[in-house]
Every structure is written in C-alpha cells, then in structure tokens.
TrEMBL record:
This is DRTGG domain-containing protein. It comes from candidate division WOR-3 bacterium JGI_Cruoil_03_44_89.
C-alpha cells in the first residue's frame, strides 16, 4: 500500500482522491506549525512513498537559521520523493529559494499535482 505524507494546507480534494484510489495519507508538520507528525522524525518504518505540500511549508523563517534542505533532510536520507506545489510562473524563483535542495524536489503547479503524484507512485 502506498502512503503520501502531506503538509498542512494541501488541497483536500487531492487528498480525498488519493484516499479513494487506495493511497494512505499521513499529515506531516514542518516543526513550526504543530501539524501532524514532525517531518524530521519520519523513518523508513513510516513507509512513506512521497511527500507533498506547498512550497512555503519548507521555507523557514529567516530568524530560524535553517534551510529548506534542513526541513527535508529525512526525505533526502530515506530517498522519499518530494513534490512541492507552487504556481508554474514562480518555479525559477522557487528554485533559488530552495537552494541546495532544489534539484532533489519536484516543483509542480497545483493544478497538475494529482497527475504528477500518480505518475511518481506508479
């Protein structure tokens, strides 16, 4: 069974569609929002096939002194694909904001999220 971890604010229609397709969903938090399981604590045992959420959920506040790659570190070490949602016209700017993690995540326009997620999960 596939399982998608998702950040707060992920479209409920997307999550409902995944559920009816037999894909489990697990809420994840970024460490500041108090939502779901803290992403930094996910392990291989959580059996997460993919993580999805809006770009802003992995962009820390300036005063935090961390980077998006710090927030997504557990995904990197466990080789969990990450889909970050942002309007297509912002993808180039988003890559600069993501810095060293930009090449390890998939930026997707929200309207294309379901198709991209299903392609990755195949």
């Amino acid at each position: 069974m596939k399982k998608v971890g998702y950040f707060e604010g992920t479209d409920s229609t997307l999550l409902a569609t995944l559920a009816v397709e037999g894909i489990d969903t697990l809420p994840l938090g970024n460490g500041e929002d108090g939502y779901g399981k803290y992403i930094g604590h996910i392990t291989k045992g959580d059996n997460i096939s993919l993580v999805v959420g809006y770009l802003h959920k992995v962009v820390p506040l300036a005063e935090m002194g961390t980077k998006p790659s710090d927030i997504l570190y557990s995904c990197t070490i466990h080789k969990i694909p990450v889909v970050l949602l942002a309007p297509k016209q912002l993808h180039e700017k988003a890559k600069r904001v993501l810095g060293d993690i930009a090449e390890k995540v998939k930026l997707v326009d929200p309207k294309d999220a379901l198709e991209e997620i299903m392609n990755i999960l195949k």
